[in-house]
Every structure is written in C-alpha cells, then in structure tokens.
Amino acid sequence: MKTYISSRTNETVVALAKLKDKKERDNTSLYLCEGYKLCKEAAGLVQVKYALVRENRSEDKEYISLAENSGGEVIILSDGAFDKITTDKASDGIIFVIKKDDTDSISVENMKNERICALDNVRDPGNVGTILRSAAAFGFDRVVLWGCADLYNPKTVRASMGAFFKIKTTVIDEPVSFINELKNGGRRVIATALSDNSMTLGKDKIYARDCPVIGNEGHGISSEVLAACDATMIIPMSGKTESLNAAIAAAVILWEYGREEL
C-alpha cells in the first residue's frame, strides 16, 4: 500500500523535514538516507520507517520495488513535499527514513579482535563520512569517535557511500580513559601529529592492533589526547604543502595499516 502526499504543510512532511536538525534526529531516533544507490546499500541492513519516493519516480519499477521491499511505509510525494524533506540538491528521488540502532555501550574488551581507528574532534560531516568509507575499504572493523560531527547528519551518511551501514561505530565521551584501556590491553595508540620523535608512516614499524587517531581539520589532535597516546606519526610529504585534508590523511594512513595482518 502506498500513500500519496502533495502538501508541503502535511504534518508528516513537516515532521520529516525537521530531521535535517541533529536535535530532532536525537529526539526521534530517526535519520535520512538519500539516493537510490545509498538506499539500495542500506536495504536489509537497517530498520526503515518510511520509504519516500518523488512523484516523478513513482512509475519507475526499480525505485518502487526498492521502496516496497524496504520494510517501511511507502509514501509518494509531490515535488514540493519531497523538496521540503531532502537535503540533496541533486536528489534522484528516493529517501529512506531509518530508525537508529538501539546499541549498548561497547567495551574495549569487545573490540579486542577488531581492527580499529579513532577520530578526535573531526567536525566536518563530509570528512567523517569519507573516513568511514576509507576505513571500510581498508579492512577496519570499527571507528571510534569523540567530539566529531553527528554520525547521522545526512552529509555524513551520504559521504560514507554505504560504508555507514557496514562498519561499526562507537561514540564516546571520555577519550583519555578509552585510550588508557586500549593501552592496558596491549594496544599502541598512535596520534597523527608532528613531534620531535614522530614515527614516519611507511618507514617505522606499525602493527594491525595499533589504533591510529586522526585529529581535527584545523587544530590536529587535542592536547589531552596527544598526551595519552603512546606515540605520534607523520605522513612523509614533498614539502610543497604543510598538511593534508583530514579525510585524505586518514585514507593514506588506513591504507598502510590495512596491509598489516591482524
């Protein structure tokens, strides 16, 4: 059964449009997944509450089949109603409204057989999503985050290109305690930062059980996290530029770690 909504002021449309805001995502435990490719990646892996289809796609068998098989209520929307909800200026006409997973807090003990990395105050949602994508591509099991952009920001979900649904994520409030637990469990925690004794990626020995930490785009690793880590690491560069974008730096580092046997 499909419902049709034409009005931008319909209460369901108004409610779903509010999911652009983190506060509303937190209050409702719902978030948006936009675009055919991304929705197809999510299908079967998540709990879909609504599958929204733009009216001009309502006769497209692939789109309607994806919506009907999502497990959510299918709603056909007029252009105006759809545009009120979407955050994607180049939307191809389908949105899943997904229920967040109800997960318990994950202990370091539960991560002992996982390949993990961490993000320290990475504030740009596009960078966070891109790092999730790289982590999944290079065989990481989990990304641990603190002080970062909201995982459920539509830009984060979109930038992950489906990795969002395939890699474990854990958001924590006390990074120093977390780092100390990792160290007590025999892992090295390596901050990506410049210091007098920094390791050089590709030259110094790294281990799959290390936890590399990627820092903030502008300010790098926070001082308390830096002090808690075992060591620092730099990416060797030509000298023609001082730094890399956080997501690019992460991809280089995670690729190198992905070559190590766990």
**How many helical elements?**
10
Task: Provide the spatial order of strands within the biggest beta sheet.
Answer: 8-7-6-11-9-12-10
As for the CATH topology of the largest domain, it is Alpha/beta knot
The helix fraction, in percent, is 25-40%
Largest sheet report: 7 strands, parallel
Annotation, overall tally of beta strands:
12
What is the CATH first-level class name of the largest domain? Alpha Beta
Count of folded domains: 2
Shape: elongated
Assign the CATH architecture of the largest domain. Answer: 3-Layer(aba) Sandwich
Summarize model confidence as the mean pLDDT: 95
- Residue share in β-strands: 15-25%
Q: What structural category arises from helix and sheet content?
A: alpha/beta
How many whole angstroms does the radius of gyration measure?
20 Å
In short:
The longest helix is centred in the middle third of the chain and has 13 residues, at 125-137.
Task: Indicate the topology.
Layout (H helix, E strand, L loop, with lengths): L1 E4 L5 H7 L4 H7 L1 E5 L1 H7 L4 E8 L6 H8 L4 E5 L1 H7 L8 E6 L16 E5 L4 H13 L4 E5 L7 H6 L8 E4 L3 H10 L4 E4 L6 E2 L10 E4 L8 H6 L2 E4 L11 H13 L4
Parallel strand pairs: 1-4, 3-4, 6-7, 6-11, 7-8, 9-11, 9-12, 10-12
Antiparallel strand pairs: 2-5, 3-5
Description:
With 262 residues, the protein is α/β, with parallel strands linked by helices. The chain folds into two domains: 2-99, 60s Ribosomal Protein L30, Chain: A (2-Layer Sandwich), CATH 3.30.1330; 108-258, 3-Layer(aba) Sandwich (Alpha/beta knot), CATH 3.40.1280.10. Helices cover 32% and strands 21% of the residues. The protein has ten helices and twelve strands. The strands form two sheets. Strands 8-7-6-11-9-12-10 form a seven-stranded parallel beta sheet. Strands 1-4-3-5-2 form a five-stranded mixed beta sheet. The N and C termini lie far apart (48 Å). The mean pLDDT is 95.
